[in-house]
Design goal:
ABC transporter transmembrane region fold, Rossmann fold, 6-stranded mixed sheet, about 65% helix, about 10% strand
Length: about 625
């Protein structure tokens, strides 16, 4: 390790020291230990290799001093050859052990990343929908990437660094003191000259790193927003390309400027510390030479002291910042644990049951519900706000009761915001009711296994969301073991087989982000095909045709006819023409069912349903309602 590497080590420790100053948490350390426990054998071997490598690193300067002493004393050349071979052997062993230690370090670090990422990913999947509606996706992804990698550094770098540097420092000091305590004390006296500039520069470097991170994040956020399909469309429709280009160039120029400033500050810092190190080395040679000429120190010891000096500063500066590095790693761990500590509002019971075989009835029994407040489902750091909104719990459903018999279709209609979609979200347990009971096949959904609910109940929403994957992959999400024939049968029944057959790669054609390569009607029919492939016994349609034109709506309605045949269905619709044939229509207003009956019964009653119907349909000269604009 030369002086420049030592200077880089000092700069890293100094910068890290300015980034976080937080007390170490014993509870946090215990949780870290729990994650490390499965890797304890690998960690023990890794630490052992670090100790052995540190011993070999100190042995080389000692042997070099012996070589010089043998040469000066004019002894036989065989001794010089033997010492040279021993130095070469140590170098080979040090290189081999270094590679092995690096392999272990990578294995441990990547293993920890795998464990943490898997734990966070699995936990996030259990969170309620409210968590995802509030959380910024980028902030959540950052926890799975940046913070997990930051936590991994505690094992890959900090742990081995503390052990290896401690052993190196103790051995180096022992050998240097045995050779010349005067020169050793001089080297230690120069340490503040080496470290203080590092600490002062660390403040400036840390500030520039934070500024650079903020600028990079702002530029990245702008690119993400503009490069998504909806964002690009919005820019093309309302944006001014020249202004957008100028704004991006300005942000990119700021990133460039901070990059140049950081590079120059680093270079100046490294140059200054390298100069200090060179001056210290000159003092060692000068004072050591003086003692050698006086006969109180041999030439070999002077060489050894000079070599050992380079191995003294790096461990000292690294250990000076070790606690800070541990705290920085703990911050990453704590940010990961913050996610893991957020309890899911919907949990499966250990003795969860399965939905009975055969036709399935749906029942709401005096169900009341209010969406949870942000502090129960989210984190301020994920929403990028100072304090979470504690408002919530206001009832949006009030004692809702109805029953859909097996094979029946129940329709929910009413004004926007009346609570219809909330009813649909309680059935698949996206949320749990605050009061009352939601039953599937006569069993409270809170007593059912999650996979059994998914196998029984399917849902088509108004946005028809698709992943940026192939048609095949989007369909197999419903049933991974479906055969090619079953896939094409589902496409045929959803009136989409002709379109898919005409695509460049057929089933392997990628549909684009959120399915934007398909039209709205085509996306909806593909989600219906997915529903048909799953063969679920209960179907929820939440505004499945809300944003479609007449032609697309007709095609989707035809596909829905296939999807609803023989199934229990709960249909939410604004267009009353789509639910006139329902077995039971429920009018929802203010979170309450204010009317119920068939289409004819509700029209005859002259209530809210009749008002909604008259609003959507014009009246002909003869007074009969006909479809209107």
């Amino acid at each position: 390790m030369d002086m420049e590497v030592t200077a880089w080590t000092s700069m890293h420790s100094a910068v890290t020291a300015q980034q976080e100053r937080r007390p170490l948490s014993r509870a946090g350390l215990r949780r870290v230990a729990a994650f490390a426990r499965p890797h304890r054998r690998g960690i023990a071997l890794f630490l052992l290799l670090s100790v052995v490598t540190a011993l070999l690193a100190v042995a080389t300067p000692v042997l070099a001093s012996r070589v010089v002493t043998v040469i000066v004393d004019g002894r036989d050349s065989a001794a010089v050859v033997r010492l040279a071979l021993l130095i070469a052997l140590i170098a080979v062993a040090e290189a081999a052990l270094g590679l092995l230690a690096r392999r272990l370090s990578a294995t441990l670090g990547e293993g920890l990343i795998l464990d943490l990422r898997t734990a966070v990913f699995d936990h996030v999947q259990r969170m309620p929908v409210a968590f995802f509606t509030r959380t910024r996706t980028g902030a959540l992804v950052s926890r799975l990437n940046n913070d997990v990698i930051g936590a991994q550094r505690a094992f890959a770098n900090t742990l081995s660094g503390v052990v290896g540097n401690t052993v190196t420092l103790l051995l180096t000091l022992t050998v240097m003191l045995s050779l010349s305590w005067q020169i050793t004390l001089l080297a230690l006296a120069l340490l503040p000259v080496f470290v203080v500039p590092a600490r002062r520069m660390g403040v400036r470097m840390a500030a520039m790193q934070r500024e650079a991170a903020a600028l990079d994040s702002a530029m990245g956020t702008r690119m993400t927003e503009r490069f998504s399909a909806p964002g690009a469309t919005l820019v093309k429709l309302f944006g001014r390309p020249a202004d957008e280009s100028a704004e991006f160039a300005l942000r990119a120029a700021r990133v460039r400027d901070i990059g140049v400033r950081t590079a120059m500050a680093q270079s100046a810092f490294i140059t200054a510390l390298t100069l200090v190190s060179a001056l210290a080395l000159a003092l060692v040679y000068g004072l050591g030479g003086f003692y050698a000429l006086r006969g109180s120190l041999d030439a070999g010891s002077v060489v050894a002291l000079a070599l050992l000096l380079t191995r003294l500063y790096a461990p000292l500066t690294s250990l000076a910042g070790a606690r800070v590095e541990v705290m920085s790693a703990m911050v990453s761990f704590e940010r990961v644990f913050e996610i893991l500590d957020l309890e899911p509002l919907v949990a499966e019971k250990p003795d969860a049951r399965r939905v009975p075989e055969g036709p399935v009835a749906v029942e709401f029994d005096r169900v009341s519900f209010g969406y949870p407040s942000a502090d129960k489902v989210s984190l301020a750091s994920l929403e990028e706000v100072a304090v979470l909104d504690d408002r919530g719990g206001t009832r949006v459903l009030h004692e809702v009761s109805f029953r859909a018999e097996p094979g029946q279709m129940v329709a929910l209609v009413g004004s926007s915001g009346a609570g219809k979609s909330t009813v649909a979200q309680l059935l698949p347990r996206l949320y749990d009711a605050d009061e009352g009971t939601v039953r599937l096949g006569g069993i409270d959904v809170r007593d059912l296994a999650a996979d059994s609910i998914r196998e029984t109940l399917g849902m088509v929403t108004q946005d028809g969301h698709l992943f940026h994957e192939s048609v095949r992959a989007n369909l197999l999400l419903a049933r991974p073991d479906a055969s090619e024939e079953e896939i094409w049968e589902a496409l045929r029944r959803s009136r989409l087989d002709g379109l898919v057959a005409s695509l460049p790669d057929g089933l392997d054609t990628v549909v684009g982000e959120r399915g934007y390569r398909l039209s709205g009607g085509e996306r909806q029919r593909l989600t219906i095909a997915r529903l048909l492939l799953a063969r679920q016994r209960v179907v929820i349609l939440d505004e499945a045709t809300a944003h479609l034109d007449s032609t697309s709506e007709a095609a989707v309605q035809e596909a829905l006819g296939e999807a609803l045949a023989g199934r229990t269905a709960v249909v939410i619709a604004h267009r009353l023409s789509t639910v006139q044939s329902a077995d039971l229509i429920l009018v929802v207003e203010g979170g309450r069912i204010v009317e119920r009956g068939t289409h004819a019964e509700l029209l005859a009653a002259g209530g809210r349903y009749e008002e909604l119907y008259r609003t959507q349909f014009a009246v002909s000269g003869g007074g009969a309602p006909v479809p209107g604009a």
